[in-house]
């Protein structure tokens, strides 16, 4: 992986990795929203890694921090503490200008409600062309040496080549959202973020939108991160992670009740993984997390 200096500014831009998708890493990320003198914790020490080209669904009810994670990954907001990295770049270290260019060149957004994603007086094709018409963007070469898909190819990928000349008002809700995905892909982003993209769609339209996300991940190699409260929608992803109370909740392993002395017996395969390791416990209201003790200064 190489670094290159952008001659038009002081921005350091990173070449694409071997995959067209982005590598995403969140490490002990906290986000606190301040309302007057009160702090509201949206994220409470989130850890997450997403591999390039992976389609991941973040699942949880409203108010659990799903959209907050998307905003952090897209450079729309900054963590209160912790590290949010895209391809090894700590987003907190970017200047405002660098963050703006990061969003324009590396990230595609699909918001809930198609009206928020499309310009109403432009056709589907014109909406897709619009991001590429903005000056100052860097033309990227994909890892396999091919050119990014053009407008016709993007509309074909989302199954709307035959609707390219229609205005948004002439498209169904599902067609509008699929057009929005094509718009989000117009600049060939490494990372596609979707916030409740199927919330306002019926089952058939939602299934088509989700199939498009799978195609984007597999055919274009983009990393796709979708926030949703819909478990049926989340099952279309390569991987599903559950968010509750600002933390990721992983499926637990059933254990025997605690002994009289408070001892707990771990399954043999789990115990082997912690053999000879110094451990620490993170105790919350309704859970206990056991992990290897981190060395001081390396957290």
The low-pLDDT segments are: 1-18
The CATH topology is: Rossmann fold
What's the alpha carbon Rg, rounded to whole Å?
21 Å
Alpha-carbon distance between the termini?
A: 26 Å
What's the CATH H-level homologous superfamily? P-loop containing nucleotide triphosphate hydrolases
Number of contiguous helices: 8
Sheet having the most strands: 6 strands, mixed
Q: What is the topology?
A:
Blueprint: E1 3-5, E2 12-14, E3 24-35, E4 38-50, E5 55-59, H1 66-73, E6 81-86, E7 89-90, H2 96-106, E8 107-110, H3 124-133, H4 151-157, H5 173-184, E9 191-195, H6 203-220, E10 223-228, H7 231-234, E11 239-244, E12 247-249, H8 268-273, E13 279-283, E14 288-292
Parallel strand pairs: 5-10, 5-11, 8-9, 9-10
Antiparallel strand pairs: 1-2, 3-4, 3-6, 6-7, 11-12, 13-14
Helix pairs in contact: 3-4, 3-5, 4-5, 5-6
Concise summary:
The chain has 299 residues and is α/β, with parallel strands linked by helices. 25% of the residues lie in helices and 26% in strands.
Key features of this structure:
26% strand; alpha/beta; 4-stranded antiparallel β-sheet; Rossmann fold; disordered N terminus; 25% helix; single chain; 299 residues
Give structural notes.
This protein has 299 residues and is α/β, with parallel strands linked by helices. The protein has one domain: 3-Layer(aba) Sandwich (Rossmann fold), CATH 3.40.50.300. Helices cover 25% and strands 26% of the residues. The chain is built from 8 helices and 14 strands. The chain has helices at residues 66-73, 96-106, 124-133, 151-157, 173-184, 203-220, 231-234, 268-273, and strands at 3-5, 12-14, 24-35, 38-50, 55-59, 81-86, 89-90, 107-110, 191-195, 223-228, 239-244, 247-249, 279-283, 288-292. A 6-stranded mixed β-sheet has the order 8-9-10-5-11-12. It has a 4-stranded antiparallel β-sheet with strand order 4-3-6-7. It has a two-stranded antiparallel sheet with strand order 1-2. It is elongated. The two termini are 26 Å apart. Residues 1-18 have low confidence and may be disordered.
């Amino acid at each position: 992986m190489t670094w290159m200096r952008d001659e038009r500014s002081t921005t350091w831009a990173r070449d694409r990795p071997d995959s067209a998708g982005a590598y995403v890493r969140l490490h002990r990320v906290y986000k606190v929203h301040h309302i007057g003198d009160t702090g509201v914790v949206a994220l409470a020490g989130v850890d997450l890694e997403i591999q390039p080209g992976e389609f991941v669904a973040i699942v949880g009810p409203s108010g659990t921090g799903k959209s907050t994670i998307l905003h952090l990954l897209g450079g729309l907001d900054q963590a209160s503490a912790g590290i949010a990295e895209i391809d090894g770049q700590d987003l907190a270290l970017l200047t405002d200008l660098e963050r703006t260019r990061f969003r324009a060149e590396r990230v595609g957004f699909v918001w809930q409600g198609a009206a928020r994603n499309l310009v109403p007086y432009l056709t589907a094709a014109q909406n897709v062309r619009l991001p590429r018409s903005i000056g100052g963007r860097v033309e990227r070469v994909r890892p396999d040496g091919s050119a990014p898909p053009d407008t016709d190819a993007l509309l074909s990928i989302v199954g709307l080549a035959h609707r390219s000349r229609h205005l948004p008002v002439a498209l169904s809700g599902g067609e509008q959202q699929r057009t929005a995905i094509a718009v989000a892909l117009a600049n060939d982003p490494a990372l596609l973020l979707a916030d409740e993209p199927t919330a306002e769609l019926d089952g058939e339209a939602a299934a088509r939108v989700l199939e498009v996300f799978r195609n984007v991940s597999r055919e274009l190699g983009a990393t796709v991160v979708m926030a949703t409260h819909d478990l049926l929608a989340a099952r279309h992803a390569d991987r599903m992670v559950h968010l509750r109370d600002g933390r990721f909740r992983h499926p637990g392993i059933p254990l025997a009740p605690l002994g009289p002395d408070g001892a707990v017996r771990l399954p043999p395969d789990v115990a082997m993984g912690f053999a000879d390791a110094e451990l620490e416990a993170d105790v919350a209201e309704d859970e206990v997390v056991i992990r290897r003790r981190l060395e001081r200064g390396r957290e």
